[in-house]
Amino acid sequence: MEPSADSRPAAGQESLGALLGGRGGAVDATLPPLAFVVGWLLFDESIWIGSAVALVVGLAIAGYRLSKGDRPRAVLLGMLGVCAAALVALYTGRAADFFLVQLLSNVASALAWLVSIVIGWPLLGVVVGTALGQRTRWRRDPELLRAYRLASWVWVGQYLVRIVVFSSLWWIDAVIALGVSRVALSWPLVALCVAVSGWVLFRVLPAGHPGIRHPRTPEQQVTPG
């Protein structure tokens, strides 16, 4: 039985949210930067102590996630990100540089999503297609491919928002504001992006399309004469 029009957007958004790590993954990513800012503030703006506090919090999160059965690779990557941020700040002696790795990561992500749209492999389709076990079948559906390309622009916009905010605050050395924006532009922005891109995706698909779970081949889209 084909999914109803009401249930299709929910299914697409659920797949995206799961692949992004959900609310828990986004919250985990914000705790070490917050710990850095708190340690930096409480101990006379010491980058060493702020970095140490961030690393301790990062290790605690990694241990908790591993005990819950999360993938070691994902946990390791998260911990490496905290270590890299701390090393950059310690090397430059500038507390705002703790957020430089995150800023550069968003620049790289924006470029990756943009390039994926241009070359016809929109990352939204790659992510959802992988989650649904479709491999590359979604690319053989021109209508679905077009919908994924248009919806992927929402994700480019998400990264551009972060780049503008983070770079502006980094430039003026606003460490506390960087910590606050790191939280505000994590899960809340991701949730908004999932909702808006899901709306665009299902809005663009024609009324008779069976939905993202059922890509159609070009032959299936030919209307009999």
Structure description:
It is a single chain. By secondary structure, the chain is mainly α. The protein has one domain (7-219). Helix content is 72%, strand content 0%. Helix 1 (7-19) packs across helix 6, helix 3 (47-67) packs antiparallel against helix 4 and helix 7 runs antiparallel to helix 9 (187-204). It is elongated. The two termini are 26 Å apart. Residues 1-15 have low confidence and may be disordered.
Summarize the structure.
This protein is mainly alpha-helical.
Please outline the major beta sheet.
none
Shape: elongated
Helix-and-strand structural type: mainly alpha
Q: What is the rounded distance between the termini?
A: 26 Å
Q: Mean pLDDT, nearest integer? A: 85
According to DSSP, the number of beta strands is 0
What's the helical proportion of residues?
A: over 70%
Give the low-confidence spans.
1-15
Query: What multimeric state do the chains show?
Result: single chain
Tally of structural domains: 1
Order of helices and strands: HHHHHHHHH
Beta-strand percentage range: under 5%
List keywords for this structure.
225 residues; mainly alpha; 72% helix; elongated; disordered N terminus; transmembrane helix; UCP010219
